[in-house]
Structure formats: C-alpha cells, structure tokens
Amino acid sequence: PHVRVPPLPEPEEEHLGGMGFWSAACLPFEFDGTTYMMAPNGLMIDPSSQEPVGRWSPETDEVVPLVMVQHDGATLLMDPEGTLVDPVNLAPVGVLNPTTQCVEPLGAAGADVG
Fold first, then answer.
1. Which end of the chain has fewer CB within 10 Å, C or N?
2. pLDDT above 50: residue 93
3. Maximum CA pair distance of the chain?
4. How confident is the model at residue 4 (pLDDT cuts 50, 70, 90)?
5. Which residues contact 85 (CB under 8 A, 6 or more apart)?
C-alpha cells in the first residue's frame, strides 16, 4: 500500500524573504526612512538586493557607505576613502590604489595609519 507522506515544511529562506544566513542574526534597522538589515558587526544589508550597503558608525550616528569589490577571487568591501575591509569582521585589509587597481597594505599608499 502507498503511504502518504505529509508535506515538508518550507525551506527557511522562504519565510525569511531569501535573506539566507544573514537573517538569523540580523535585525531590522531604519535609517533615513529606509529599512535595512543590520548584522551584529554593524554591517547594513539592503533586504531587497541582499547586498551590503554600508556600516553603521556609532561614533557619528551615520552610515558609512560600502561597495562590494572583487579582488583575487575574494569579495571585499570598500569605503569612500578606498580602504578595503573584510566583509565578516569589518577589519581593514588594505587600500585600493585607483591608478594600478592593486590592493596595497595599509600605510603603503600614504594613508594615515592610526
């Protein structure tokens, strides 16, 4: 005899709007009339595109815009000054030289370290 199996629950991302692993720890955060998802590290994610858009700066109560860049197969985030940061811990990893399109260690491009 054929045994009828009950339908499985929907995948979790369908309930979370497709945010996947971001959603588990992210909280809704409204800034200038727009709602973002904020990760525990302060990274702000656009829920519609699921891409990082900035980092919350508690010092200035402002969003520091970030853009995703690919470098040597790695995805990094770049701030307006050209500083590249790790998308997981937001630690600075280098500075993008706009002329050569190469990543230089912090301090090598004449950036003020400290």
1. N
2. yes
3. 76
4. low
5. 55, 66, 76, 77, 78, 79, 91, 92, 93
